[in-house]
Design a protein that fits this description.
Layout lengths: L2 H21 L2 H12 L5 H6 L16 H14 L13 H18 L4 H9 L8 H10 L1 H33 L1
Helix pairs in contact: 1-2, 1-8, 2-4, 2-8, 4-5, 4-8, 5-8
């Protein structure tokens, strides 16, 4: 991988991690890291990630919000357009790439379910709606642990996006 691409990947990691530490909201922080590293932005996509935090609605009972954010970024670049909505095969590229991200996430973290990931990283799941639980989660190290997951996921998704963009450029040059 070229030095420029490595710098982009590092920037996605650094931004995602920093945003998670400062702001919380793992899917939005992942998206922000990816989007800024790739020099794009879409407020509607960013906003739509809000409710996916902490396993959907801060429940822990869904997959990690960082994985949601990374998947949304992949969909942003390779997803099916409204004009092609009736073409079921139009979603395959994004699904294949999202599956790749999911596989890499599982390889790295051992699970994608938020509550299970929290248990693995900080000993148990914390109910972030409860102020005492929220405070306990902070003391247990959630900001550092979760921000690293966000950064790593932003890096993984950005690499998948860059690799696919490169393949598409090479394919179009062969025509």
């Amino acid at each position: 991988m070229k030095d420029g691409e490595e710098a982009i990947l590092q920037r996605a990691f650094d931004l995602g991690k920093a945003y998670e530490k400062a702001n919380g909201g793992c899917p939005q922080c992942t998206l922000a890291g990816i989007f800024e590293a790739l020099d794009v932005w879409d407020d509607a996509v960013f906003k739509s990630a809000t409710g996916l935090a902490d396993g959907v609605g801060l429940t822990g009972d869904g997959h990690c919000g960082a994985l949601s954010g990374g998947t949304m970024a992949i969909g942003y670049f390779f997803g099916r357009l409204r004009e092609n909505f009736s073409d079921v095969t139009g979603q395959l590229k994004a699904c294949i790439l999202a599956k790749k991200l999911h596989h890499e996430f599982i390889e790295k973290f051992g699970t994608c379910r938020c509550a299970d990931l929290q248990s693995k990283l900080v000993g148990r799941f914390y109910n972030l709606y409860d102020p005492a639980e929220f405070e306990a989660g902070l003391k247990a190290g959630m900001p550092e642990k979760c921000s690293t997951v966000v950064g790593e996921t932003a890096r993984m998704a950005t690499r998948i996006i860059l690799d696919e963009q490169k393949k598409q450029r090479e394919k179009s040059q062969q025509k």
